[in-house]
């Protein structure tokens, strides 16, 4: 029953999660529609500038999660940094897949 009252008890958190899901769904639909034809944003990402964009994005990812996570104190298995590590794992995978897509797509 608490799940149904979540929008009323925590409206800011509920609204934020709905907004994030809407942004993700928009990105998923745009990605699915790009396979049917060459849209402008896929040409922009898969072109020569896409390689530089994803390359710089990977360097930024490595600096933020590689160096940044080493500066915070680790407190064992119950540390909240495990969640940040999981986010780093997923974002690194998608950044590298984007980089490969831009390199192979040319």
Layout of secondary structure:
Blueprint: H1 6-9, H2 11-34, H3 40-46, H4 48-67, H5 81-104
Structural overview:
This protein has helices at 6-9, 11-34, 40-46, 48-67, 81-104. The protein starts with 5 loop residues before the first helix and ends with a helix. It is 75% helix and 0% strand. Helix 4 (48-67) runs antiparallel to helix 5 (81-104). The radius of gyration is 18 Å and the shape is flat. The protein has 2 domains: 1-37; 42-106. The chain has 5 helices and no strands. With 106 residues, the protein is mainly alpha-helical. The model has no long low-confidence stretch (mean pLDDT 80).
Main attributes?
106 residues; mainly alpha; 2 domains; 75% helix
């Amino acid at each position: 029953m608490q799940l149904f009252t979540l929008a009323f008890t925590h409206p800011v958190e509920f609204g934020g999660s709905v907004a994030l899901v809407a942004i993700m769904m928009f990105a998923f639909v745009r990605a699915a529609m790009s396979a049917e034809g060459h849209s402008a944003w896929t040409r922009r990402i898969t072109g020569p500038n896409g390689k530089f964009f994803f390359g710089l994005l990977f360097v930024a990812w490595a600096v933020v999660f590689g160096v940044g996570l080493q500066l915070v104190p680790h407190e064992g298995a119950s540390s909240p940094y495990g969640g940040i590590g999981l986010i780093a794992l997923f974002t690194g995978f998608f950044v590298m897949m984007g980089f490969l897509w831009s390199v192979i797509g040319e």
